[in-house]
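Review this chain:
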Amino acid sequence: MKPTAINPGRRNFLTGRRLSSPDRVRPPWTRAASVDAACSGCGACVPACPQHIIALDESGRPALDFTAGECSFCGACADTCPEPVFDRAITAFEHVAVIGSSCFAAAQCTV
C-alpha cells in the first residue's frame, strides 16, 4: 500500500488554522492567469530587471518585491521573456492606488 502525503493546507483549513498566503504582485503587463498558463519558470526576467525587484516565488513564477525598489516600467522583463506571458496592450497593473479626501496626507497637501 502506497503512503499518501498529508496536505497541510487542507488540514489547516479543516481545523480552522488556515493560513492564507498573500497575493503576489506579478510583473507589469501580466495577469495571474497568463503567468500560470504560459510561464515556464525559466527566470529570464529576474536578471533582466534593472531595478532588481523581480524574484521567483515558491512556485517558480515571477513576483515583484517592492521592498527592494520600484518598477520603472522599462519593459526589460517583457522584452526578455521567451513565453507569451506579457501583454503590453493591457494596463501594467490591475490595481490602482487612490488617495481619497479622507487620507491624512491628502488633507495636508497644499498643491
The longest strand covers residues 54-56. The helical segments are 8-14, 32-38, 45-48, 76-80, 104-108. The CA atoms of residues 9 and 18 lie 7 Å apart.
